[in-house]
Amino acid sequence: MKKIFLASFLMVSLIGLSQSNQTFYNNFQAELFFGRPIEHDKKLKDAIDGNSFGAMISYNTSGTKNSIFNKLYNYPEKGFSFLYQNFNSNVLGKVYGGYRHFNYNLKKNDKSNLKLTTGFGLGYATKSYDKINNNKNHAIGSKLLASAYLKLQFFQLLKKEKISINTGVSLIHFSNVAFKNPNLGINTVNLNVGLNYLLETQNIIQTENEPLELKIDKKLYFNLILRGGYNESLIIDSGLFPFYTITFFGSKTLNNYSTFTFGTDYFRSKFLKNHIKKTNIEEGKNYNENDYSRIGIFVGHELTQNNFSFISQIGYNVYYPFPYVSRVYERFGLKYKLSKHLFSEITMKINLFRAEALEVGLGYRF
């Protein structure tokens, strides 16, 4: 998952800042993909039997409003997409996904139609971990999953009036965000070939004298956010427990796209209490069962899109009384501006490749 958000930030930053008057089209695309699951943990060795394959259909509509946002991001498309993937594995089975996606036009000419697509949604797996019948599936712990994909489309092999054949590469992720373990997740890298059909046109007339850039407030602000949710420890069937996170951070806008953030997290995860107790019994350790808090420091980035922002952070636990997966952690997700001071977030906290929690938060900017 983290590769998806990091790549999104790097690629979207390449979008052009201006564009002449153009005609855009709503369109429908059907594509096939063929790829290979990534063995990011040794426990996945028995689950990955070979290459995977699948199909995706998507409907895309262009934003026609002559707004500063559309100009800054080269009039992105938005739409819905549906995916079928066969892992070609008796352990992993098949998955289905439904997404809300956005297409960013990075470069467009007669020979190339460079687009970056980011999609976020839900998935369903036909096979998940079962202690008796499917105990090798450490990737998927439940049939209902969170899913995301990143796709880079570049070459057009055939282009007629309304039909074109497009090629690209994609990264697809499925996991259940530690609501039920095991939860290593599964990532696949794919080659895509798709048939695109243009529908009705969308004419955009730009006004030359309109300013392209927004007014930037570069003042340093401080923010406080409370996050929470439920998650399970690495121990299978250990149960769901509540967690709370208090975050205090500074934020400074750098330009129309980017905001730099830095701050500290206080983590209080109830599942760790039982996990520490079990570790003490099974491994003969003497950790304090009542000391299951963690404190981290982090730096991050927010990619701004109107009232929405894509969040990416990397942190390090400076207070870490019990070793759980890794001191290093990452956070990726979405932020929505509710008012001048209030904002909401939904984020995923990750310890290296292992998702620890899906966080829902409400914050205040001073």
Describe the sheet with the most strands: 8 strands, antiparallel, barrel
Question: Within the largest sheet, what's the order of strands?
Answer: 1-2-3-4-5-6-7-8
Question: Looking at CATH, which topology of the largest domain would you report?
Answer: Porin
Structure classification: mainly beta
Terminal CA distance reads 31 Å
* SSE succession: HEEHEEEEEEEEEHEEEEE
Strand proportion: over 45%
What is the global morphology? flat
- Whole-angstrom Rg: 22 Å
Q: Provide the helix percentage.
A: under 10%
- Total helix count? 3
Describe this structure in words.
This protein has 366 residues and is mainly beta. It has two domains: 2-204, Porin (Beta Barrel), CATH 2.40.160.20; 221-365, Beta Barrel (Porin). It contains three helices and 16 strands. The chain has helices at residues 2-12, 68-72, 271-283; strands at 22-37, 52-62, 77-86, 94-108, 112-125, 144-159, 163-175, 186-204, 221-231, 241-253, 258-269, 293-305, 308-319, 328-337, 342-351, 354-365. An eight-stranded antiparallel barrel has the order 1-2-3-4-5-6-7-8. An eight-stranded antiparallel beta barrel has the order 9-10-11-12-13-14-15-16. A hairpin with a 4-residue loop joins β10 and β11 (258-269). The longest helix has 13 residues, at 271-283. The chain is flat and about 70 Å long. The protein starts with a helix and ends with a strand. The relative contact order is 0.14.
